[in-house]
Amino acid sequence: MSIEKSVVIGTFGSLYSIEQAVESLKSLQDVAYKVVGNHTLIVRIRNPRDESLRKKIQEIITSSKGYVEAEMPKTAKSKGGKISPLDYPVFG
User: Fold this and answer.
1) Which residues have C-beta within 8 Å of that of residue 71, sequence separation ≥ 6?
2) Does position 1 have pLDDT exceeding 50, yes or no?
3) Which CATH number fits domain 7-70: 3.40.50, 3.30.420, 3.30.70, 2.30.30?
4) Could you state, in order of their start, the residue ranges of all structural domains in the chain?
5) Which residues contact 75 (CB under 8 A, 6 or more apart)?
6) pTM, whole model, 2 decimals?
7) Which pLDDT belongs to residue 82?
8) Alpha-helical regions (H) of 1-92
9) Euclidean distance between the first and final Cα of the chain, in Å?
10) Most buried pick, 14, 46, 78, 88, via CB within 10 A?
């Protein structure tokens, strides 16, 4: 299994915190994000080699009182490139 470098997963304790992170992410380009279950934010980076953008996303999550999940191997392949939280063992 390979580590998915193009995805950053953040978990939050409140809806207000996740909304703060989403507002900050709107200013970034080359990212797509999805809120799952009111406590999880999945951010997909279009260029997985862009470490500065990855660090900026992680800083946005932590500054919004969120927790950045450790990089983990995918357990399944998404169909059609869609982001699914069930692709990662933390949600399974």
Assistant:
1) 3, 4, 5
2) no
3) 3.30.70
4) 7-70
5) 1, 87, 88, 89, 92
6) 0.73
7) 66
8) 15-25, 51-63
9) 16
10) 88
